[in-house]
Amino acid sequence: MKYLLAVDGSEWSEHACQYLLGILRAGQDEVHVLSVLHTSKFSFSLGGSEAVPAVISEEEQIASATVSRCQERVVAAGCSATGDVVKGHAQTAICEAAEQYAVDVVVVGARGLGVLKRLVLGSVSSHVLSYCKASVLVVKSAPHPDSKPRRILFGCDNSQPAKAALAALLRLADPGDRVNLVHSFQNLMLAGAGFARFQGAHDAVIAELNDIEAAAQKAYLVEAEKICREHKLDAVSSFSFGDPREVLLQAAEIATYDLTVVGSRTLSDLQWWFVGSVSTGVVRDIAAPAVLVVKTAQP
Prior knowledge:
Layout: E1 2-6, H1 11-23, E2 30-37, H2 39-45, H3 52-76, E3 80-87, H4 90-100, E4 105-109, H5 121-131, E5 135-139, E6 151-155, H6 160-172, E7 178-185, H7 203-230, E8 234-241, H8 244-254, E9 259-263, H9 277-285, E10 290-294
Parallel strand pairs: 1-2, 1-4, 2-3, 4-5, 6-7, 6-9, 7-8, 9-10
Antiparallel strand pairs: 5-10
């Protein structure tokens, strides 16, 4: 798997680096380390003074040293590493680099409190989540110490993004890791504007559609649990009715997890699982060190 690690020298990007080092597969994975300098902010904060070039040069040296240290740690973990420092807006630079290097997963810290606040969840991370074509791993805190076997919370349904998320989970998990597969089904008539075409249907028709789809979802949940067990994971599953985001948040409050994995949205005709705001809400609100939002099928 190929990762893009965005760093800015802050505590939060350090958490992201630590977390990534804990999931790398020696001899298999590749990492490109990226730091972004938003140089126009230096000019603004310094009022266009003659000191700007010197400040930018110093910051570029600091960023290069940060990138180099991360590369060294990746190599020490048995994986290949490249890196660079670019100038521009972090939001767009990260997405462009992800496409340029054809990475599978972009890794970002939840927020950054460097001089220029380059990695702020409300702007950079949300932009990357929305516009980056690659999957995104948002690291919100340092990984749990002694987190082996890991505990993984997985938002499961039978949509294509969720199936891609399961494939990514299987690539990241080690034998013996504990996986909780959670599925929450919303009745069609309660699912909002996307189901307006059903509003005039007879209640019996709606009930029948609910029963058919709920049965299909339950069947896939059983299949997904079986797949996890075949990969020697300690898997359990649960099926409930309600808002998917709330169900996942509640599950994260009941037990401690090292990673949460979700698909970004559903591609099914009825669209009731992770629809944009759900995955964003999970990233923002869930009590877990990291959330992997899988947006495309992993090769």
